[in-house]
Amino acid sequence: MKGKIALEEAFCLPRHEEKQKWWAGLFAVDAEKHTREIIDIQKIRLEKMDKFGVGYTILSYTAPGVQDVYDAKEANALAVEVNDHVAEQIKGYPDRFGALATLSMHDPNVAAAELRRCVTQYGFLGALVNDTQRNDASGDSMIFYDDPSWDVFWQTCTDLDVPFYLHPRNPTGVFMDKLWAPRKWLVGPPLSFAQGVSLHILGMVTNGVFDRHPKLKVIIGHLGEHIPFDLWRINHWFEDVKKPLGLDCKRTIRDYFRDNIYITTSGHFSTPTLKYCIEEITEARILFSIDYPFESFEDACGWYDGVDLEEGTKKRIGRDNAAALFKLGNF
Ligand code: GRE
């Protein structure tokens, strides 16, 4: 399929090359190649987009990125640097690249102001944040965005009418030491990423974020971070047990997945799982993505182009849903 839109696509600052190589050493078989690919925006990436039928890429800063910076001032300075860098890189390619703002999430007002700057000054299409914000040197303390102190930030997302992508990050501090270090091969895509994001987004549901901000649009990757598979069970426990016990979110989990939450195919190229998600949460809520360069264009596009879906469904998931969500006109 030509003209696909992809929206969980990472870049990093050239000055972080060494740091990225270290990270790639944990997650990429060829760390040098990965690092070349993630720093590049205008050359290797565009060639791959042309070769594999990706018309438009929405870029975002790599994980854990700014969410790992525990000093609030330093975190915001890095976010601003990243946003200025990517704006400069993509400005000559309005038909090929968009960007999601990188934000320091120490302070809801600061995050809101930087998001507003990126959307109004640079035309960025939303924000992407890497799960919780690290809040101390040890990594034991982290900030979630599901309590009312974050309402000012969510209000800004809905005022600007831009989506917020909740992307995974790695566990830190005592959580890393106790839960994950003894079973280190489960850190990242095999398990910890999905657990982190599903805890966070379900926290937003149960703590009433979507009730207070009914127009808020949140995207999660990896075919929904395990939640679609569990939807029946979550719904059953919310409606039949937790609500009678006092859970006071106004709507059902299915309602939030119908009206507030989108999922992408990033890093999850399974036809049976995609078909299951279409049946469970409908094709209207699903968006094609790659997760480059942690995943390859070959794997993502090779799979998606060959998937046996009805043509209209394939176009909606591959392009039209994202074009509508990000208001990309008739791209
Ligand atoms: C990411 O998307 O940021 C990521 C990692 C590490 C492994 C896989 C992955 O940071 O998708």
Automatic annotation (TrEMBL):
InterPro entries: ACMSD, Amidohydro-rel, Metal_Hydrolase. One of its GO terms (cellular component) is cytosol. The keyword Lyase applies. It comes from Neohortaea acidophila. Belongs to the metallo-dependent hydrolases superfamily. This is 2,3 dihydroxybenzoic acid decarboxylase-like protein. SUPFAM superfamilies: Metallo-dependent hydrolases. Keywords: Decarboxylase, Lyase. GO terms for biological process: secondary metabolic process. One of its GO terms (molecular function) is carboxy-lyase activity.
